[in-house]
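Q: Sequence in, structure out?
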Amino acid sequence: MTFQVVNYELSTCQIDVTSVSASSLLLVGDAEVIALSSMFDTPPESLIIGPFVPLTTR
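A: Exactly. Output:
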């Protein structure tokens, strides 16, 4: 697989985040390495998947 990245100029004035998931990443800018991991120590029967809770503005 060949993966080619061309970096052009990026201009960001404002980012509005209304909600996040259980595992998420928001990146603006450059990164050499990104390593994400997740681990649960909770039994599956106690995990509650419910509606998303929106973030409040301050």
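The radius of gyration is 17 Å.
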